[in-house]
Structure prediction request, 581 residues.
Amino acid sequence: MAKTIAEKILSKKGHRDARAGDIVIGDVDLLMAQDGTAPLSIQAFREMGGRKVWDPAKVALVLDHNAPSPSEGVSRLHASIREFAAEQGVHLYDVGCGICHQLMPEQGHVRPGDLAVGADSHTCTYGALNAFATGVGSTDAAAVMRTGRLWFRVPRSGKVQAEGSFPEGVYAKDLALEVVGRVGASGANYMSVEFAGDAIEGISVDGRMTICNMGVEMGAKAAMASFDAKAARYLGGGKFAPVIPDPGARYEWTEKVDANSLEPKVSRPHRVDDVVSVKEVAGTPIHQAFIGTCTNGRLEDLKIAAKILRGGKVHRGVRLIIAPASRGILKKAIEQGIFQSLLDAGAVPVTPGCGPCVGTHDGIPGDGDVVISTANRNFKGRMGNSLASIYLASPATVAASALEGAITDPREHL
Amino acid sequence: MRGRAHKLGDDVNTDYIISGKYKFKTLDMKELAKHLFEDLVPGFAESVRPGDIVVAGENFGHGSSREQAPLVMKEAGISCVVAGSFARIFYRNAINVGLPAVVCKTGSISDGDLVEVDLEQGRLKDLTTQRTLKFKPLSGIMAKILEEGGLANYIRKHGELPVEGGR
Prediction:
């Protein structure tokens, strides 16, 4: 019988012919945990009687959510993660290396056909490299550290078929927002979502990561794209075994997107799936703008923002915070003059990492502040103040809005 | 188990259960429990009596993978969470830490109702309205995990992951 990508990967890793609905116990290729989830994982690993992780080469711990530490409490937890990493000989990406979901693909921890598990909901990002990647909690992550395996119910699949090419000023993020708006915050709950079509093939791996990243915002267990020459180049070349869905594979639904007719989009406070065109909220005054995160902190994103900001100045009274997704991206942005343009425009750079996205540090908004951000979540209180409001948009929309001091259609600044 | 219902709406995300601004600082769940549902229902934590039950609408627990969400609910004294549907990571996490999560239509239950949940029989009785609702009891791997009080206990005892079938 014809299979989806999820069915194929979970059949292979679970050593059985599995269909949607079946339970498999899969061999895990990568286990990632970050500074918000690793401490509980380490605790659970000990409770399970764990002494040595199953395969240190397949475990990566990343200090990104709250890094560098803003408090003694966080410092203690960071120290416990470092100690565990040294004791176990696992990969450690310490403060300043970047965001877990950038580092795992960038540093070669993910390959097509892999089963990757991360103690962070946005682990679905790695599907951009044709892996089955899913977020779990700390105890499931601990079970993987202990046994190298985890149980999964093979998900049903949905498909987003995106054709055409993006008009100027419209980007992968706008497509991601469009899809989340259509499908809804729970519309893909427990499902795997495959992104296909020439609009997806036409964009970079960075852009595919933006799209897969937001899979979980519609409840998806995994999101994935096909593997092509671009993806192979991203991984530095070599021999790969891409996973291709069979013709006739079963999809519960298909969403068709015409990229040619897409417009810049925003999510309005406080729901990610409350998506409208930028023009509907244009003119809304803002106090803070943020470019970064596992959704949109990549080189391409900084480049787009710099192009819009070049020669201009961030509007008076607006803070534009920039958090590159990794140290490697920051270095390239400096080499290519991108960072200079951002600084000249008055941007406030913070450490490569999650920045103010989770409300822990680096730019907690004030009471009544309106923020426009390239992140993936705008829940009330998400950035640390429940009296602030957050709009989500593309780096271009955020940059244009920072210049104008109000939500602005980026096409006016191209 | 029996407790008063704390009624919440649809799409309650894990940031609302326990905010990121607290959860990164400490593993002390008692400390975190003071902030349970703080941005959604101010004063929630003080209103909980041991054994109380959270009753919500659709897609409960969506968003982040933070396991502190079910841990903090448990620590605050919540004995069970009942919702029309759950987001998948929260659902797994709840069972993995030994917090019973029941999928059941909750429209007829009001805030403050006294509710009795029988996990094995799959029966929820609203003692205030005398209505009884049925739900599918947990089975398979998840039932085995909950029986042992969570996944860490299960693995410590059995030395491996639970598998389907048998009991």
Observations:
- The CA atoms of residues 82 and 135 of chain B lie 10 Å apart.
- Strands of chain B lie at 2-7, 53-56, 80-83, 101-103, 114-118, 123-126, 131-134.
- The helical segments of chain B are 14-17, 20-23, 29-33, 44-47, 68-76, 88-96, 140-147, 151-158.
